[in-house]
Amino acid sequence: MVLRAGPRPAARTESKGGAQDVRFERRELDQILRIYGRMVAAGEWRDYAIDFLADRAVFSVYRHASQAPLFTIEKRPELRSRQGQYVVLATSGQVLKRGHDLEQVLKVFDRKLLKALLLREA
Known about the structure:
Blueprint: E1 12-14, E2 20-22, H1 26-41, E3 47-52, E4 57-62, E5 71-75, E6 86-90, E7 95-99, H2 102-106, H3 108-121
């Protein structure tokens, strides 16, 4: 493995059809997995899936693997200059938070974590 300093190319990789898939960068996955680990420790989340599509990367969170995802965290580079490339969606498709900074977007889960911990102790 070769480690390089400096700017990295866009987080896209070639797929079978020649089109490029959007990917999460290591820093982005670290932030998402940090929240995921906290929610697993609180007993709220149990499973996840990552999908890399031509127009977006999706991190889906499940309570049970056989159910629909509780939340999806999406990276949509085409929205970078408008609404922000990161979005958290609920099961119903409702946008919970959208923005340019993933760390700020993931703060939507801080309240949910606190609520889960309080309910667990009661």
